[in-house]
DNA sequence: GCTCTATTTATGCAAGCGTATAAATACTCC
DNA sequence: GGAGTATTTATACGCTTGCATAAATAGAGC
């Protein structure tokens, strides 16, 4: 009952990891909702339930927070795709099939993910650190894909020398990226699963093998 | 030699079209160089050689200028691709070939274009007008592609019903977009023309026809 | 329970933003 | 060549931004 009712906000001290995660999550929410421009330190802080000053305690500068958020997005998508692999780990062709359909369906193919990704990509050209982060993610993805492709080809008794698998990986990576883009941007003009089907068919054509049955090429 | 040396900047009155083009060009320079955040009205005006206030005379709000700039980028890329078509307008398969290689080479496959495109795409999700602008551009591109595909298939005496050409257009559009992306982001890790070649091969596989010679499928 | 420190709040600042508006001026038309 | 107008400059306002800093406090360790 003091005359000075200027009560300070009560708070809890959280572990460092937890706070960083919360701040990154809040950042992603902001970017997804109103674009990179909407991700101000004040907005992020409010969404994370803390005051703005705290951000600087965990991230020396806002750009570092943004960069951390970008890495988190990429990692999240990568993990989700790998999860799909772990669910169907028997036949190599089925594994490639699962990998592709996972990347072309929920929750990876989502407008929010695209907004985040595009916002960051726009910075890649200006920020070398961001560019390096991107390249690592891209090459990692392609390497994983190339292994899946090689195993699928071998399983179908098709030639799988590295000079073939490399260009196949480039092409199939493009198919996945391109369809992912189309789906994120205008998912409503495609029927359910249409893009995943289209992708599988195109990839089967490129590789010259079937991914659905064990029969291999007819 | 007046004591009041506060001389006003001298200026020329330009035609409305010229000014709008200049302002859009200046905007694109800013976005390409330092991202959307670097495209401030003051910076844009300076680069266009005018004062900031003038922007508002031609564009009621900054967002409208940004939107106009986005449409200009898309149109520029579309026109460049169409130019390639006009240079090789004999055989339908050669036309498709030319269209693909044009989109996967200079000047379309360029990091600047990607920065511009990505910066704008990040806004699509938040801004309905931008979303409409994008959808129009995308569907226009895909329609043009679908016609090229149909003609190429017919020329090779392959089935070309619309339900086939539609899904082919989706897949091939994805291949082009995906490879364009890869090239823009990391062009230096690919040899010259590698991506265009990869794209052509993948597209030939999807369509089941050859695009290089007149011989059709073997 | 007291102390000490890492964590958090609160406040302020300087810079830059988009926009508004009035004054100046280059060009057009008679 | 003089009047009128469309175009352009110049200036200022109100906001928001990222960042800095000092004061407060929650929770751990003795």
UniProtKB/TrEMBL annotation, chains A, B:
Annotated InterPro entries: BetI_C (IPR039538), DNA-bd_HTH_TetR-type_CS (IPR023772), Homeodomain-like_sf (IPR009057), HTH-type_TetR-like_transc_reg (IPR050109), HTH_TetR (IPR001647), Tet_transcr_reg_TetR-rel_C_sf (IPR036271)
Keywords: DNA-binding, Repressor, Transcription, Transcription regulation
DNA-binding region listed in the record: 40-59
Any one GO molecular function term: transcription cis-regulatory region binding
Xref: Gene3D superfamilies: Tetracycline Repressor, domain 2
Residue span, HTH tetR-type domain: 17-77
Name this polypeptide is given: TetR family transcriptional regulator C-terminal domain-containing protein
Gene source species: Phyllobacterium pellucidum
